[in-house]
Amino acid sequence: MTGSPHPSDATARHRPWPLCRRCCGVALDMGSARTRAWITGRGMAVDVPTVTFPGTGAVYPIQRGTIIDTPGCARMLQRLLADRLPRSTRPIVVVTAPVLDGVAYRTKARTAVEVLRPLSVLTVPSARAIALAAGADVHRPLLVLDIGAYLTEVVLLSDGAVTDARRTALGTSDLDEATPPEQIAEAVASMLTAMVRQDHTCLTTEALQRGILLAGGGALRPEIIHHLTGRLHAPLRVVAAPHTAAVRGAAKLLQAAHTHPSASPPLPPVAHPR
């Protein structure tokens, strides 16, 4: 990297949050069912249904992990966060994104976040954010299972990068008499079986032996965990507060983003004596 300021310059510009009065950061997890935001100095500031009100009733701008209404997302963020952020600062924003369909999601999410006038917008795969929240060793093969309200995603991480990923449009909100909890367990087992069969490096097998990291609202459902344990024959490690793991992992990334030179506000001009 060229043109970066000396480390002492970055230290001078940035004090640890929340002491740095010129800086603000937002960790954002916009899911199909709920939107959560963590703000520097305030912690978890938003945990509400993902919904907007354009004047004709409630509209749900994210469905099954896909942003279908970008302006609606922008209106929602304006309503939820604009008054919670200091008016004199431009925030650094870290947004979680599903691994599959991630490119389209990230593009639309960045557009929606512009309503907050961000200094910079960074995106992170939800699975990696979950691993960071759990304090997992991301340098070794790791399987992350995220069971949400409308989407279930299985992701293989290796050295922190996504190696493989599968998902099904099935979540906790779909459970009823016609869709019992074991159906989610069966779908997860099928995805893992396909990953093992197509993996010629044995990374998936090694990750299975380590245990599957389980997050999302589904990790709070004992009946789902029961069927997963009986069907997968692999250790399950439930993340603490699994429903907020993604946004908490994104919040951990904010500190690194905070001190990165690209996120530094411009220094005032130096006055030279005449």
Structure description:
With 274 residues, the chain is α/β, with parallel strands linked by helices. The protein is 34% helix and 23% strand. It has helices spanning 7-13, 70-81, 102-113, 126-134, 181-198, 203-210, 222-232, 245-259; strands spanning 25-30, 34-39, 43-49, 62-63, 66-67, 92-97, 120-125, 142-147, 152-158, 161-168, 212-215, 236-238. The strands form 3 sheets. A 5-stranded mixed beta sheet has the order 3-2-1-6-7. The longest helix is centred in the last third of the chain and has 18 residues, at 181-198.
Mean pLDDT, all residues: 87
Query: How many H/I helical runs?
Result: 8
What is the tally of beta strands?
12
How many domains? The number is: 2
Q: Give, in order, the helices and strands.
A: HEEEEEHEHEHEEEHHEHEH
What does the overall shape look like?
globular
Which residues sit in consecutive blocks of at least 5 with pLDDT less than 50? 1-19, 261-274
Q: Could you give the order of strands across the largest sheet?
A: 3-2-1-6-7
Q: What summary fits the major beta sheet?
A: 5 strands, mixed
Overall radius of gyration: 20 Å
- The CATH class of the largest domain: Alpha Beta
